[in-house]
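User: quick one, fold this
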Amino acid sequence: MKISADDLLLAKAAHWEATAPDKVFMTQPHSGGQSTDYTWRQTMDEVRRMASYLAGLNLPPRSQIAIVGKNSAHWIMADLAIWMAGHVSVPLYPTLNSETARKILEHSESRLLFVGKLDDWPAIRAGVPEGLPVIELPLAPDTGAPKWAEVVARSEPLAQFPQHDPDELATIIYTSGTTGNPKGVMLSFGGLVAAMLADDKIDVTPQDRYLSYLPLAHSYERYACEGIAIFHGIQVYFAESLESFLRDLQRARPTLFCSVPRLWMKFQSGVHAKLPPEKLQRLLSIPLVGWLVRRKILKGLGLDQARYAFSGAAPLAPEVINWYRRLGLELLEGYGMSENHSYSHASDPGDARSGYVGRSRPGVETRLSEDGEVLVKSPGMMMGYFKAPELTAEVVTEDGYLRTGDRGEVDDQGRLRITGRAKELFKTSKGKYVAPAPIENLLLNNGLLELCCVTGAGFAQPHAVGVLSENLRAQLAQGRMPQAELTQKLNALLEGVNRALESHERLQFVAVAREPWAIENGFLTPTMKMRRARIEAHYAALAGAWYAAGQAVIWQ
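Assistant:
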């Protein structure tokens, strides 16, 4: 695939600046319900001024400059300014602890740090190397550093910027680290736009709208939000907070919307809290009433204008996907990794199969190894891991395929189903291997559990630890759902799941976790994937007593 300098994101931003200067590019919310619109002209004026300042620092060419903060208009402006000044951007998750932040800042050799909107700046500040210059973005906590607005006000806009080569390093994205230390994925300017140039399955126009809330430090949001928005000239709205998320959705009315399984399940749980599943099903079966109910639910979620809706990062139970489709929202699953800039597989509109992540996207080649590992060659392929050629060699085959570490199977229509992580297989004391992911999907099917982890290495039978759905946690805490009744429901769930499993896979019990799993307590990554090793280690000391109790449902 031929990529020219005019296809790159910085050139595209300059294109919209010249051809649609007064079109709103980004809408930034503020506390109190207010928001600020940034047109392409305003955006690029600030970008050019900040780039001028960065160029005046006389840093070595292609120096690394880091960004830490929640998603915001100025996060994207900082990214563009770094590129315009001839440097490489290094995004950091806003939920990092000081130790991880220090490791990334030092390993990446970052020369400057942009600090944006954060909930806990002191937790990160302790990891900022002494002497590293800082620039404070709007909405950031008080850092004592020079502020973006002040720097922009005293800098002249940079008229000319370097024309980048598509093969030139653009950014280093550090993986969220479900296992081991984060690795620096090097992506080229060409790799950042390869998906937009290759994929003709999704029709995106400048009239589309997108709500950004998944972390921009992650490859997927960088592609789905920043990449698509700049390439196609669409409008981006930002979420103010998790508490305001539904209001933000209703304000943006996105035509393109991407989320993760946990939030799709929370939306469903919220609907069921107001309209029990049995009643909803009856209403949907009545022709005119069903149409009105579907419309009301989707409008209440802010998704009534969504042309495309995607789920990724982890498997989503087919029953949940089908539930949304009954509402009239064709929820499509996708699959990708930071190492291929999230451009790998996705379901095609009108041809999706529940439980499958779809076909290889245009330009992507896929094959399965002898032991069923999914190998992918993508136009968005990384240049390698930063300063780690030995790790790069471990995950890239000699003929250029990425070893994903995921096991999969392909149906007769070429659609891929992920059956689990190869490294997640564990062996029971009977010498039988268990793949946890398919069992976890079965447990999550009926909405009782929000998250669950199947484990049990070294025991005769596996078991599951799960977190109740938010709705059920609230009912239990308020006394509206007796624990005995919930125990019965969980018992029925366990029996139903076990009937679908091979004898060596059947779960001895389900343990209900006392505390929710969250990013803040380290049980989830910033993209809400389970940190399996962390969860298993946390409950390991309790497992023996749980098995000895001989109960099907354990309340921690």
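User: anything notable?
Assistant: The first strand starts at residue 24 and ends at 29.
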